[in-house]
Write a structure and sequence with these properties.
Blueprint: H1 5-14, E1 22-25, H2 31-37, E2 45-49, H3 52-61, H4 63-67, E3 71-75, E4 88-94, H5 106-113, E5 114-125, H6 131-144, E6 148-156, E7 163-170
Parallel strand pairs: 1-2, 1-4, 2-3, 4-5
Antiparallel strand pairs: 5-7, 6-7
This protein binds S-adenosylmethionine.
S-adenosylmethionine binds near residues 48 and 98.
């Protein structure tokens, strides 16, 4: 299905190990939530989106997993989400500009909720020439200020728009 080719690719990049706890920021319609929660051995998944409309759509798509207690959704920005009880092995976002738009307070929350050994994937659609490098530079800057460093960059020729995902991890002295 064309519309979710990029999200299917992203699920493969995130590829949580069995039982790993995942946070998705800006889950939209909940397609990536569905793909990740459906993986064998999937651990608990929390997703937040500031749009109540999006969370309602994501709830409809993931109702069975929510009722089974495997997925929970919150209508909130990442900065205001109730994550006190949580920590995560993987934090992922796709096409969420907040992760590269200063001052990007989202990174402070990510820093707080990421478990030791955790990783962050900032994925985005590459909308034109130079967009990849511009976003990568911006992510490196705002994440670097919070003690994260780029670990890898994943790319794919997804249709209709290519995709990229920057993988970041905390620096040892961050
Ligand atoms: C372009 S949409 C992408 C949705 C989905 N990730 C996808 O790729 O299809 C961006 C989504 O992120 C949400 N969003 C933007 N900034 C956010 C923030 N700081 N915290 C939570 N959600 C946010 C928006 O409400 C919107 O649903």
């Amino acid at each position: 299905m064309r519309a979710s080719e990029r999200l299917a690719w992203a699920a493969g990049v995130v590829a949580p190990a069995p039982g790993q706890r995942v946070l998705e920021v800006g889950c939209g319609h909940g397609v990536l939530v569905d793909l990740l929660a459906g993986r064998p051995g999937a651990g608990p998944l929390v997703a937040v989106d500031r749009s109540a409309t999006m969370v309602a759509a994501a709830t409809r798509r993931n109702r069975a997993a929510i009722e089974a207690g495997r997925v929970s959704l919150q209508t909130a920005t990442l900065a205001t989400a109730d994550l006190l009880e949580h920590s995560f092995d993987v934090v992922v976002s796709f096409d969420v500009r907040a992760f590269w738009t200063p001052p990007a307070p989202e990174w402070d929350v990510v820093r707080r909720v990421l478990a030791p050994g955790g990783r962050v994937l900032v994925a985005f659609s590459v909308m034109g020439p130079g967009a990849d490098e511009a976003i990568r530079t911006a992510v490196r800057r705002v994440a670097g200020e919070r003690g994260f460093a780029e670990h890898a960059v994943h790319r794919a020729a997804t249709a209709p728009t290519p995709s990229a995902a920057i993988e970041l991890r905390p620096t040892p002295d961050g």
